[in-house]
Write a structure and sequence with these properties.
The chain is of the alpha+beta class and about 240 residues long. The protein folds into two domains: about 160 residues, Beta-Lactamase; about 70 residues, Winged helix-like DNA-binding domain superfamily/Winged helix DNA-binding domain (Arc Repressor Mutant, subunit A, Orthogonal Bundle), CATH 1.10.10.10. It has nine helices and ten strands. α6 crosses α7. It is elongated, with a radius of gyration of 22 Å.
């Protein structure tokens, strides 16, 4: 499948999605250079105007690619690509990620990552899907550091793939508060759990919290009992499911 010369950007309206107003679709060229980022092609072009009755001119765009409105509304970056990696469609979150420099585009219109090894793993995963696998997974480096988990799904009956990217998981205060509330952890237990989920060992957590390692391990035994797990690995796995 040869790369196409343009792709669709699905624009989220400036105001909230209310009163029957649908998101607009912009058909964007990617032939101009970007001033702010040397590796990303500009996604500039004409804004599709609404019809006389107020409906957007191209509101069927997701459906024409075999997609639904879930693609448009998903807050995570999602992309539809051809079998050789050419970008066909980006949802608003995906468009914003490209414009912010979180992803780069090659001159051929394919996504480019932070190192040659990640580019190779990405192309290999696409190839597996193109050859009939329903799903492939890859861990890829971002252009400016950090890592992404890439879920790559085949599109039945079409030489395309759906990409969904997830940032490397990190504990937030909101997620920690929710976990502590559900499992009735004390503030001290929550602090220990937070440090361990951020990658600290029990000894480092003790130093960070200015308590003894013995106290940290006592908190861990209480956390294991409250969460119904049998050790550190199970505790981390269960906690990550809620992050």
């Amino acid at each position: 499948m040869e790369p196409i010369s343009s792709f669709h950007r699905l624009h989220w309206p400036q105001r909230a999605f209310k009163g029957g107003r649908n998101p607009q679709v912009e058909h964007a060229s990617r032939t101009d250079p970007v001033d702010a980022h040397p590796h990303v092609a500009v996604c500039s072009g004409f804004q599709a105007q609404g019809s006389a009755d107020g409906r957007p001119a191209r509101e069927e765009a997701p459906a024409e690619y075999g997609l639904g409105w879930w693609f448009l509304l998903d807050p995570a970056p999602r992309y539809l690509v051809g079998s050789e990696g050419a970008l066909l469609l980006a949802n608003p979150a995906g468009q914003s990620a490209i414009e912010a420099g979180q992803f780069a585009l090659t001159h051929e219109g394919s996504l480019k990552f932070g190192c040659a090894d990640s580019d190779r793993r990405y192309k290999a995963a696409l190839l597996r899907v193109a050859r009939g696998d329903a799903y492939a997974f890859a861990i890829l480096r971002k252009p400016y550091g950090g890592w992404l988990a890439a879920d790559i799904h085949g599109v039945p009956g079409h030489p395309r793939a759906m990409l969904a990217f997830r940032e490397a998981m990190a504990s937030t205060q909101e997620s920690m508060n929710a976990i502590s509330e559900v499992f009735q952890l004390t503030r001290s237990e929550g602090g220990v759990l937070h440090r361990l989920l951020d990658g600290a060992c029990p000894k480092s957590a003790a130093n960070d919290l200015n308590i003894s390692e013995h106290t940290v391990r006592a908190h861990l035994r209480s956390i294991y009992a409250k969460m119904g797990v049998n050790g550190l690995v199970e505790m981390v796995r269960l906690s990550c499911a809620f992050m």
